[in-house]
Design goal:
Layout (H helix, E strand, L loop, with lengths): L1 H27 L6 H13 L7 H13 L5 H22 L1 H5 L2 H20 L2
Helix pairs in contact: 1-2, 1-3, 4-6
Length: 124
């Protein structure tokens, strides 16, 4: 149990640091929104998304490992990857106009898509 909570706290540390930095930057700027605050806010929230290679996905997998029996872990990981791929495809269709005009979003979606595929491939 102790390592479980250590893992969760470590995984939440990065996004928490980004969110605290965003709030501190907002405070220092006198309540005005600035680019440094927005970058930290977006990075902190992005890391909490439940995709396998991000902190949010690692948190979900850590929770699943804690509450599932050993024989169900591979089953969970496989369906978690499939769920993430479906979410990415839906995200691409819903926000297609915005995504195609933003190169960083295209790179991010390709990265997440291929990491999910690689994770599924490594389960065999």
């Amino acid at each position: 149990i102790n390592s479980f909570w250590n893992d969760i706290c470590i995984l939440l540390g990065g996004p928490f640091a980004n969110l605290v930095t965003a709030l501190f930057s907002f405070y220092i700027a006198g309540g005005n929104i600035n680019i440094f605050m927005l970058i930290n806010l977006i990075l902190g929230l992005f890391n909490l998304l439940p995709f396998s290679k991000l902190d949010g996905g690692s948190i979900v997998c850590t929770l699943a490992e804690c509450f599932m029996r050993c024989e169900k872990k591979e089953w969970f990981t496989r369906y978690f990857c499939i769920f993430n791929i479906i979410i990415l495809v839906v995200f691409c269709f819903v926000f297609s106009e915005y995504i195609l005009s933003n190169l960083s979003l295209v790179i991010m979606i390709f990265y997440l898509f291929f990491t999910e595929i690689i994770t599924m491939r490594n389960l065999k």
